[in-house]
Design brief:
The complex is a heterotrimer of chains A (110), B (265) and C (183). With 110 residues, chain A is α/β, with parallel strands linked by helices. Chain A has one domain: HprK N-terminal domain-like (Udp-n-acetylmuramoylalanyl-d-glutamate--2,6- Diaminopimelate Ligase, Chain: A, domain 1), CATH 3.40.1390.20. Helix content of chain A is 36%, strand content 15%. In chain A, strands 1-5-4-3-2 form a five-stranded mixed sheet, covered by helices on one side. The two termini of chain A are 13 Å apart. With 265 residues, chain B is of the alpha/beta class. Chain B folds into two domains: 121 residues, Udp-n-acetylmuramoylalanyl-d-glutamate--2,6- Diaminopimelate Ligase, Chain: A, domain 1; 137 residues, Histidine kinase-like ATPase, C-terminal domain (Heat Shock Protein 90). In chain B, 40% of the residues lie in helices and 25% in strands. Chain B is built from ten helices and ten strands. In chain B, the strands form two sheets. A five-stranded mixed sheet of chain B has the order 1-5-4-3-2, with helices on both faces. In chain B, α2 packs parallel to α3, α3 packs parallel to α4 and α6 runs antiparallel to α7. Chains in contact: A-B, A-C, B-C. Bound molecules: adenosine-5'-triphosphate, magnesium ion and zinc ion (2 copies).
């Protein structure tokens, strides 16, 4: 499944400009240190962190998209930085736990 | 969802609050950011977090959560366990990562919800204080009565009126004995809301050709052996009707029988 | 000579906090790694002519790299964190290099050692190359690449507005209205 396919199926709002790519697995964490240690290339990263420093971390470990959960307001500078790196920033109204349930139903586990 | 089920689903180890595993949570909240837990977490939730510090436990306590599950095998230091003990929190630790932990819990949460919806009573999932699934094996006279004993002790622990507990226990016992005597196996679902207790016994077995007749006092198809053991007076189903506030019996021959009983609190 | 084409993986990962101390007297900044459970921001204390106080605890990790092929271990004890260059100073060498690398679709990341920096370079070019290799081995390099350089490339720390790739305020009980920069 690609990011564009995912966007339609679970009601995500794309915010940055990005290149579509394949998704492989999901990584859930609100800690940049966890992501640096554990995320894999192509992972979707679910977090409630909206600060722009999530983007360099997302880029460093090559996640396919950052999904910011819980309907959080996302600063413009976060979106702009993501666009610079062509990383998808998607916003979801659902809390992390509920969104994981939907992604799992779509078969997006490991 | 009962915290014991959360523990089982996640294959988690218990770091504290073993005696509270029988209590239920109303939501699950996954977060590593403590200000977020305090701002958006709802009371009676279980926190799933990768932040293994005492702060996580304190935040959970302040947000009126019932417990914390640490993911990826993380464990906070002793201070956190002591704090949890002093403040009646359950602490669990699972080796799963956040995605797997959430996915598994969401799946069993939905299953539990589905089972209750089938119970045909219109209450919301938020209202379920406790739900438990148990099993009965047909023809197993040695363990006969264990399920109703378990149901009774759960209800007693909650501190419900002993008269009500007695009615539920007797009805469940009659239903359980019918499975042992007349059917192959059954799943028992006990759920409790602030307003009612529901026991659903759903069995696989020969079924009842004429339910109305079976409900009559004295009607029985029990064998001589069963009678010799003191059963088979044809009083089980009538006894359930007497003790419950609502009773529905549905059956299909060669498939099974479903007995749903409700007791108002 | 071994001909191993090393495959680097993180090992010995230790989570903790990078504690930042700032002197209100001279605006100097220093760091140390803390394994405390719940680090607090401390009261100011005096050390010779400085008045240090803990201004931030950033959630961080320490790790070493191990080659899964030959077992060689490269340690990164001196690594306090990674910094993302914001291009704050046009004449900074990091920014100049970033401009150049961007054309090759390569992103620059700055490895930070202890503050204040000592006179010895803590990160050899080889250490930086290994770290670079690790992050590139973890990514789809047909899209873009990573290059890690030492913080000694930054000329002036006091004016650098680079951003640490770290979480701050993880333990705060207050929902932040606006997340503040590190300093
Ligand atoms: N779960 C069941 N599956 C199949 N048949 C059942 C089941 N429950 C009850 N029956 C049928 O209904 C009859 C009446 O049940 P009831 O519980 O009233 O009496 P009993 O089980 O025969 O005797 P007692 O309960 O007094 O020991 C049973 O004899 C049996 O034929
Ligand atoms: Mg009976
Ligand atoms: Zn090697
Ligand atoms: Zn000073």
């Amino acid at each position: 499944m690609t990011i564009n396919e995912l966007v339609g199926s679970v009601g995500l709002k794309p915010l940055s400009t990005f290149e579509d790519r394949d998704i492989s697995g999901v990584f859930v964490s609100d800690m940049v240190s966890d992501v640096m240690a554990g995320a894999k290339s192509g992972n979707l990263w679910l977090t409630i962190q909206t600060h722009k420093s999530v983007i360099p971390a997302a880029n460093l470990v090559d996640v396919s998209a950052v999904i910011i959960t819980g309907g959080k307001e996302i600063p413009q500078e976060t979106v702009e930085l993501a666009s610079k790196y062509s990383i998808a920033v998607l916003s979801s109204e659902l809390p992390t736990f509920e969104l994981v349930g939907k992604l799992y139903e779509l078969g997006l586990g490991k | 969802m009962e915290m014991r089920i959360i523990k089982d689903v996640l294959g988690a180890s218990v770091l504290g609050g073993e005696d509270r595993l029988g209590e239920s949570v109303e939501h699950i909240y996954a977060s590593d950011l403590m200000s977020d837990v305090l701002a958006f977490g709802k009371p009676y939730s279980m926190l799933l977090t990768g932040l293994a510090t005492q702060q996580a436990v304190i935040s959970a306590h302040m947000a009126e959560f019932k417990g914390v599950v640490f993911i990826r095998g993380k464990k906070p230091k002793d201070g956190a366990e002591q704090f949890a003990r002093d403040n009646q929190l359950v602490l669990l630790s699972t080796d799963l990562d956040m995605f797997d932990a959430c996915a598994r819990l969401d799946e069993s949460w939905k299953k539990e919800h589905h089972a209750l919806e089938k119970g045909a009573t219109e209450y919301k999932r938020e209202e379920i204080l406790l739900s438990r699934e148990l099993c009965i094996n047909g023809n197993d006279f040695t363990n006969a009565g264990l399920v109703s004993t378990q149901v009774k002790s759960i209800l007693k622990k909650i501190g419900l009126d002993p008269k009500l507990v007695r009615r539920v226990a007797i009805s469940t016992y009659e239903g359980e004995m019918n499975v042992v005597m007349h059917a192959k196996s059954a799943r028992v679902n006990l759920s409790i809301t602030p307003k009612l207790i529901e026991v659903v016994i759903d069995d696989e077995g020969k079924g009842i050709p004429d339910v109305q007749q079976a409900m009559e006092e004295g009607f029985t198809t029990a064998t001589e052996e069963m009678r010799a053991m003191g059963f088979g007076s044809g009083m089980g189903l009538p006894n359930i009707r007497k003790n419950s506030d609502e009773l529905e019996v549905s059956s299909e021959v060669d498939k099974g029988t479903k007995v749903q009983m409700r007791f108002f609190i | 000579m071994s001909e191993c084409r090393h495959q680097w993986n993180m090992t010995n990962v230790r989570f903790g906090f990078v504690a930042f101390e700032k002197c209100f007297h001279c605006s100097g900044v220093r760091t140390f790694f803390s394994k405390e459970e719940s680090p607090h921001l401390g009261e100011a204390y005096r050390e010779e002519e400085h008045f240090w106080s803990r201004v931030e605890n950033a959630q961080s990790l320490r790790f070493d790299l191990v080659c899964s092929e030959c077992g060689r271990v490269e340690d990164y004890t001196e690594l306090m964190g990674l910094l993302h260059c914001t291009g704050c100073l046009p004449e900074c060498e990091v920014e100049i290099l970033q401009q150049k690398l961007e054309k090759e679709k390569t992103w620059l990341v700055v490895a930070f050692g202890h503050l204040p920096p000592g006179s010895d370079e803590p990160f050899s070019p080889e250490k930086m190359k290994i770290l670079t290799d690790h992050f590139n081995q973890r990514r789809d390099t047909s899209r873009s690449r990573i290059r890690v350089v030492s913080f000694s490339l930054i000329k002036d720390f006091t004016v650098c507005k680079g951003e640490f790739i770290h979480d701050v305020g993880m333990l705060s009980q207050e929902p932040p209205a606006e997340r503040k920069p590190l300093f």
